[in-house]
Design brief:
By secondary structure, the chain is mainly α. The chain has helices spanning 3-27, 36-60. α1 (3-27) packs antiparallel against α2 (36-60). The longest helix is centred in the N-terminal third of the chain and has 25 residues, at 3-27.
Length: 65
């Protein structure tokens, strides 16, 4: 698998999973030991990291004009 395709898949997966954790942390009541603030913090971290990887991919592999 090419590195560029792997980078794009990783960025997309991190953003989707991060957004899912954000929704779960904000919408669901705490059901156990894991506090919702931990889910929100980890979701924000994944979303930010995925966005950075996506921006790097965009500017590294953008078409030449």
């Amino acid at each position: 698998m090419k590195k560029s395709l792997l980078q794009l898949i990783l960025a997309t997966a991190m953003c989707i999973f991060g957004c899912a954790l954000l929704v779960a942390g904000l919408a669901l009541p705490p059901a156990g030991i894991i506090d919702s603030s931990l889910l929100v913090a980890y979701g924000e971290t994944l979303t930010f990291a995925g966005a950075l990887i996506g921006v790097d991919y965009h500017y590294r592999y953008r078409p030449k004009k």
